[in-house]
TrEMBL record:
InterPro entries recorded: HATPase_C_sf
UniProt keyword annotation of ATP-binding present: yes
Region (Disordered): 139-169
Protein name in UniProt: ATP-binding protein
Gene3D superfamilies per record: Histidine kinase-like ATPase, C-terminal domain (3.30.565.10)
Length: 169
């Protein structure tokens, strides 16, 4: 007997990730910040010298993304941690989205998404980078955690860029 694991292919993931509503695509990242108990979230449209849009940057000061959660969430489509709880752990906010696919909405806006996140675990703070390329939505790169000074603010910055210039390696 052979046991097969269903694997989503890039064309299907593109369909799941696509939306013509660009505000809805950006809103997914703002909702994720709120679900991470961020008291503050900022969306910045970064312009180039000619006034064209170079990237979209969403910053929050929430709880960040742990390595364990990054590995689970970025390897799975669906099965969000939000399915098992109704409220955020710190501020008790009602949670938004439970389908585990919002992170892919960047595909409607950019060719590359890079998350830089700082989280607290066992009394220490760590920085982690996660990247997804639009040409390979089924693959993401997650760096090894790097310990940072205890005073470093937790939170996540997501940069949505038109090119692959922000590769993690």
């Amino acid at each position: 007997m052979v046991v097969l694991t269903l694997k989503a292919k890039n064309d299907h993931l593109q369909k799941v990730a696509s939306t013509r509503d660009f505000i809805k695509a950006i809103a997914e990242f703002v909702w994720n910040a709120l679900d991470a108990d961020a008291p503050r979230t900022n969306v910045e449209l970064v312009r180039n010298a000619l006034g064209g849009l170079e990237s979209i940057v969403i910053r929050d000061n929430g709880t960040g993304i742990t390595k364990v959660r990054a590995e689970h969430d970025f390897e799975s489509l669906g099965e969000s941690w939000k399915l098992h709880t109704a409220r955020t752990p710190v501020l008790g906010r009602a949670l938004h989205g439970k389908e585990g696919q919002g992170r892919l909405r960047f595909f409607s806006l950019a060719r590359r998404a890079v998350w830089e996140t700082v989280y607290k675990e066992n009394g220490k703070r760590y920085r982690l980078k996660i990247g997804i390329d639009a040409d390979q939505l089924s693959s993401s790169s997650v760096s090894e955690p790097e310990e940072v000074p205890a005073k470093t603010q937790t939170g996540t910055t997501v940069e949505l860029a038109p090119s692959k210039r922000h590769l993690i390696g």
